[in-house]
């Protein structure tokens, strides 16, 4: 876990503040779309690797601009990042961000 | 973990199918609102206990019908359940459902 996530390890074992709830709701909104979840899974299932947008688009019955929009939402939520090299953009997941969201949903009882 | 979650322990270590992504997106949509996240945290932070709606409403600058609507969304997503007794409705969290969503966000790399 990186320093940027140490400050925000809230979870459902205690009531969330307004501020933390607002921030987390934005991240969950990025996950609240089937195409974005599939995109994220296609990227995150190759840990340590980059995935070319040219590999992602053919797996969706969506236009390239629509796929790019969904990728932008995931990127703005801090769940993935990307780099353009030549013609294509390459994406990778940010495990610490996913781990933080995963940790939010932990309750005392869930693992009792 | 209950039998109902054993069938659906997908996570981001492999690409999600269309069907699983659609179902999970609906659950994440329920979390994509600050008031719902706060409500869920107020309920889930008291494991094994029920929380009266009469305790929840005063903690929000929202009307009771609005709070009830948010609670209904969380209930329809399978994250909480409730029982009416007399004047009030009592809510409790469903840890297995939260644990399942938490597990979805696990990648191979996150815990490497």
Q: Which class do the helix and strand fractions of chain A yield?
A: alpha+beta
**What is the count of structural domains of chain A?**
1
The span between the termini of chain A is 24 Å
- Radius of gyration of chain A in whole Å, from Cα? 15 Å
Identify the most extensive interface between protein chains: A-B, 45 and 45 residues
Determine the oligomeric state from the structure.
Answer: homodimer
Strands of chain A, total number: 3
- Mean pLDDT of chain A, nearest integer? 88
**CATH level 4 superfamily of chain A:** Winged helix-like DNA-binding domain superfamily/Winged helix DNA-binding domain
What proportion of the residues of chain A is helical, as a percent range?
A: 40-55%
Order the strands across the largest sheet of chain A as they lie in space.
1-3-2
CATH class of chain A: Mainly Alpha
Low-confidence stretches of chain A: 1-7
Order of helices and strands of chain A: HHHEHHEEH
Q: What is the CATH architecture term of chain A?
A: Orthogonal Bundle
How does the major sheet of chain A shape up?
A: 3 strands, antiparallel
């Amino acid at each position: 876990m990186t320093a940027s996530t140490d400050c925000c390890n809230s979870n459902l074992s205690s009531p969330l503040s307004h501020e933390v709830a607002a921030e987390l709701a934005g991240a969950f909104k990025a996950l609240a779309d089937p195409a974005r979840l599939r995109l994220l899974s296609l990227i995150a299932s190759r840990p340590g690797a980059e995935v070319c947008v040219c590999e992602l688009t053919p797996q969706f019955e969506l236009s390239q601009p629509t796929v790019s929009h969904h990728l932008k939402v995931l990127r703005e939520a801090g769940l993935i990042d990307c780099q353009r090299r030549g013609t294509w953009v390459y994406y990778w997941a940010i495990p610490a961000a996913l781990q933080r969201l995963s940790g939010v949903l932990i309750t005392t009882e869930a693992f009792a």
